[in-house]
Write a sequence for this structure.
């Protein structure tokens, strides 16, 4: 499912003194099957942009095309319910959405709403709980008895159970421990490969952007600042610094090394492996 | 969540904004009492002009005040219609069984309508120009004499402050949870009554759980910092009675005199 934004503006609480424009004339394309990262300073409009992807917000002006569905300021809510199944959104701190008596029922809630039978939904729920590494014995417990990290997994499984074609993730690993973070990111990656999902990830973790994404969108104060491959975006450390964006660790290391010693990186390394390879090469040349 | 104007604060620096919250609170209540003295066209006209003058002083667009009336319009119309049908006297225009439309009925209906609108305008003026916490702290200051009668004034005012403080937070939370559940296929406000009631469960449970967690966190944080209410506690918000507050009181006094002079005895 490819996604196009055309001159999208969004204004919160229009025509009140609290009016605030959050998106300014955004035009962009998210290719089908891509792993797109959206980065930007806090308050730059990332979450606002995400809510346009399944019609929770409709543009104040402009147009969004998702596969064949067109969303304009006047689109009716009824027309959007099929879109909500195809585009699954995992919100910032999604554990706030849990409410059912048991973990299993909560995960099955989404698919049931979208027309799966009780039995199908429960089966899907078991499958997804397994996928996000929730131990079997938790499934019949109340979601409110779990730890924060486990609740996060339940919430994510609840979205995955809807079997969306586009998976939208708003800082899915914020507040998790490093191991849990890596584990969850690997789950998304595996899903993408297995089910050809389009993934859209909002994150402040540049290492995740470098490792997983193949397309990066940079927002600043509600405007589109840049878009391109991670290599393109991270090629200019000074540009990133002036826009208050961090570098991936490996790139930061390489950039510092370049300044202090004679190393020359023709292509900035994004991950530790790339960095190591380039260093080995250059050290080899020096003899 | 965008439509609620009644009870929202619009920051500003107008004459009304800068009044002491205590004087605003007293004068608003006072005005509501005074309205009931009006009983003829001249007196209502006087109050109307005065209210518009206050609105003008606040530098807030009249549209916000009109929006404040809208949620209550059915209640107002219902009351007005009752007045029109059940007041007797004067020329009879229409009659059916116990119902009749008379001259007095129409006039009274008009007055009741004006009374409602004036009260709503004045209370909207109070909430639009005074931050909720200011209102709470003014309430505390005004209730202080009740301490003599063992009324737990500090506790009441702390409760009001906390409640007011968390209204916007809870509204944000509601919106977030609604969005999350919509994304999982819940349609709020659609379908049969049963369906709509069922849709409320996935909203209310997370909301309550969140509110309880927040209350617990807040209590812990307050205790951790050694909060003890009441006696000897100094205040961050200190009220200063200024000349403009005295001026406002004088203005309201003159208004009352003029009104007593204009009304039919
Ligand atoms: N419900 C709302 N009502 C009014 N303004 C809002 C609302 N939600 C967001 N905004 C404003 O819109 C702007 C963009 O907010 P948004 O939540 O999209 O930022 P973000 O990029 O997701 O930030 P973060 O990284 O902190 O999550 C901010 O200035 C914010 O104050
Ligand atoms: Mg956000």
């Amino acid at each position: 499912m490819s996604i196009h934004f055309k001159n999208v503006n969004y204004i919160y609480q229009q025509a009140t003194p609290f009016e605030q424009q959050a998106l300014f004339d955004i035009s962009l394309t998210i290719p089908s099957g891509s792993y797109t990262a959206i980065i930007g300073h806090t308050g730059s409009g990332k979450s606002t942009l995400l809510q346009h992807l399944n019609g929770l917000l409709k543009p104040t002006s402009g147009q969004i095309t998702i596969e064949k569905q067109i969303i304009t300021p006047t689109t009716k809510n009824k027309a959007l319910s099929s879109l909500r199944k195809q585009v699954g959104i995992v919100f910032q701190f999604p554990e706030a959405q849990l409410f059912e008596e048991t973990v299993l029922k909560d995960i099955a809630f989404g698919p049931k709403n979208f027309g799966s039978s009780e039995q199908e939904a429960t089966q899907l729920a078991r499958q997804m709980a397994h996928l996000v590494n929730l131990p079997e014995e938790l499934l019949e417990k109340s979601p409110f008895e779990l730890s924060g990290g486990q609740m996060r997994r339940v919430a994510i499984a609840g979205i995955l159970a809807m079997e969306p074609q586009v998976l939208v993730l708003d800082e899915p690993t914020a507040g998790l421990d490093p191991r849990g973070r890596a584990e969850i990111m690997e789950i998304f990656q595996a899903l993408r490969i297995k089910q050809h999902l389009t993934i859209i990830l909002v994150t402040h973790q540049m290492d995740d952007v470098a490792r997983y994404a193949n397309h990066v969108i940079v927002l600043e104060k509600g405007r589109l600042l840049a878009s391109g491959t991670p290599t393109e975006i991270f090629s200019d450390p000074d540009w990133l610094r002036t826009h208050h964006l961090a570098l991936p660790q490996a790139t930061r290391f390489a950039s510092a090394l370049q300044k202090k010693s004679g190393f020359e990186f023709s292509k900035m390394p994004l991950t530790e492996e790339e960095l190591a390879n380039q260093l080995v090469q250059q050290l080899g040349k020096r003899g | 969540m965008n439509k609620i104007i009644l009870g929202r604060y619009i920051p500003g620096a107008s004459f009304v904004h800068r009044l002491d919250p205590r004087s605003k609170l007293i004068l608003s209540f006072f005005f509501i009492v005074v309205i009931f003295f009006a009983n003829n066209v001249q007196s209502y006209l006087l109050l109307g002009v005065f209210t518009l003058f206050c609105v003008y002083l606040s530098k807030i667009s009249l549209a916000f005040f009109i929006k404040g009336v809208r949620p209550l319009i059915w209640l107002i119309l219902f009351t007005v219609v009752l007045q029109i049908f059940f007041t007797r006297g004067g020329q009879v225009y229409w009659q059916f069984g116990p119902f009749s439309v008379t001259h007095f009925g129409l006039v009274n209906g008009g007055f009741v309508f004006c009374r409602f609108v004036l009260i709503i305008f004045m209370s909207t003026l109070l909430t639009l120009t005074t931050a909720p916490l200011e209102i709470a702290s003014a309430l505390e200051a005004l209730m202080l004499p009740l301490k003599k009668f063992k009324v737990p004034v500090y506790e009441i005012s702390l409760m009001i402050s906390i409640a007011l403080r968390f209204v916007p937070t809870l509204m944000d939370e509601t919106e977030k949870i609604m969005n999350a559940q919509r994304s999982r296929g819940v349609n709020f406000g659609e379908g049969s009554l049963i369906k709509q009631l069922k849709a409320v469960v996935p909203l209310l449970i997370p909301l309550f759980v969140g509110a309880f967690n927040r209350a617990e966190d807040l209590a812990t944080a307050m205790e951790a910092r050694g909060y003890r209410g009441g006696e000897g506690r100094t205040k961050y918000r200190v009220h200063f009675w200024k000349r403009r507050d005295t001026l406002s009181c004088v203005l309201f006094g003159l208004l009352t005199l003029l009104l007593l002079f204009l009304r039919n005895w």
